Amino acid sequence: MSGLQRPVGIQVGAWVRFAAQVRAVVGVTARTVTLTDTEAGQRVVAVEDLTGEADFAVIDIPVRMPLPASSRLETFPAKAVEKALWWEGHILEVLHGRPPEAGPDTTPRPEYGLDRSLTARQRAKAAELTAAGTKVSASAVANLRRRYQAEGVLGLVDHRQAAKRPEFGSVDERVVTAMRTAIGEAVDASTRTGSFILWRTREILHETSGTEDLEVPSERTLYRLLAKLTDGTHTFSAASTRRSKAHGAKAPFGELPAFAPGEVMQIDSTPLDVMVLLDDGVPGRVELTAMIDVATRTLTAAVLRPTTKSVDASVLLARTVTPELMRPGWADVLRMSRSVLPHRRLLSLDERLEHAAARPVIVPEMIVCDHGKAFISRNFKSSCRFLEIDFQPAHKGSGFEKGHIESMLGSVATLFVQFLPGYTGRSADHRSRHPERERIWSLQELLDEWIVAHWQNRPHDGLRDPAHPGRLFTPNQKYAALVEACGYVPVALTGDDYVELLPSDWRAVNDYGIRVKNRIYDSPDLTPLRRQDSGIRAKRGLWEVHRDPYDVSQIWVRDHRTDGRRWIQATWKQLHRAPVPFGDLAWDHVSHQMPGATEAEIADAVASLLTRAHAGPAGEPKPKPKATRRDRRVAAQTKAAGPATPLPAQATDEPAPAPEPEAEEKLADVIPLGLFDPLEDPWRRR
User: Fold this and answer.
1) SS3 of residue 610 by DSSP
2) 3-state secondary structure of 569
3) Within 10 A of 236 (CB to CB), how many other CB atoms are there?
4) Residue 22: which of 108, 110, 117 has the closest Cα?
5) Is 118 left (phi over 0), alpha (psi -120 to 50) or beta?
6) CA–CA dist 360, 353 (Å, integer)
7) Which residue has the higher pLDDT, 635 or 254?
8) Which residue in 134, 477, 540 sits closest to 339, CA to CA?
């Protein structure tokens, strides 16, 4: 079959030599070739006979003219383009016999007739132009004709008139290389000025090639070169931006689409620009760790901690798959039953939503995070494996791969944090004089209320209807639309599973109970464990205790004497006397169906929340400044320096008035102690 293949070049329009004649190819099939013939008009020849002829040769192959690169003509001077277009008219007359402006009925001039050879027409054109005053040879016309057939009108332009300048002028390439090296060294270093880069460039030149045969440009030229090389590299701006730009993805990248709730979720943490009240009553800074759903932009959970740890990420994951219960003091419009979420239909699938707030419960399928220690830890990975979640760390220095959570953390600062007392601003230049002296919050409960009231009901620019791009959806509205198409499958996360995800500690069970951060927890079920060894040698006989760092009301103790699956719940002894930031999340409340909340009601709830947040916590007097050691010493010295004896009274004729009895100073209210009742339940909350 290889003998049936025709040679490359035998195609319609080609000219071949066959039987001592130059013939045109007018037809080609798999086995035959149709040629022109002077006697019969056409002649059909087999491919084997054609290629087997002794004088067979392909004389000419038709070449399709290239598309004109008219945009490249703009890079040449106007005179050069005008000259090329002038030559194009003459070359077209040589090729086709008629100039380009001639009509289809125009008869070619005799010297350019198609019956004449191409060489003769080129000689005629050279003679015509020479007679008109443009001296040119026939070989020059032939050269221009070939360039035009290969490159179009661009081949007729004098390229010498468009000589490009070097990218960096006359600066030696070694100087450019040395400066690139100095800029590369500054990527992971602290931000410096341009003078340091210039100094480092000279040092690199001296270390590598020397400066004997090298002409180092002037300082002004070096600064111009530095401006070109550092354009877009953030060499002299924020170090974090510079590193992200340098170590980010080099290939084109796009956005991972998400069409179902939980398909792609992102988690990250950042310091919060506000002073808050910590557990020990002192002001301090905290970090915000949050998780967002890409498809609906739902902020599924957010927690505040002085320092983010792996257990905090696990607790955040546990809260994502459990409903957010209504809290005492929240506006009634924040209930899920009064929101746009399909509460009745979801309640038939998940009974936990009966007393839930208007925040969707989303089960993650994939979690995208950075390489922070809290997220790549064994604890967080094991939690993801337990819930069958794909764990996907982003590339190092590629913040754009989790841009949704990055944008959300910035929005929290502008939409919520700046309304709070104790707001510090994003830097020291934007900070007030003494933010720690303002009334500050234990912020976690306030943040949870803001998420349900404001964030979930705020139209998001990234949530648009493809059919109506002008309409914006809120996260709750987008979730309600997507859950109809994707469905809802609740995670069977029992109470024991939730306790397993909480951070663990090892404590002794004493007669009075268990001490955790100066808080005493106790329960009647701990009686068999008091002052007993757990049997765990690696932990010196201590007992495993799990606790929620965001709810100090209770802890759970694992009973190692059984199969290890039994948990003993212990309650804080002072829970009935001291306010707790969270309180008990599992509180009973009889829900009753109410009409859906209006937009005005939600707006009023958000306005009330921000007003209360800005006013600071009510009923908490500012702590009095504690007297320092110097203050006490000065007060004692002042008292000791007073007169040792009273001054004598001046003599008068009037008798001295009788001294009035001094009023007895009331020290405090006397509160009688109650009688001890041995039959009373000591664990009942009062």
Assistant:
1) helix
2) strand
3) 15
4) 117
5) alpha
6) 9
7) 254
8) 477
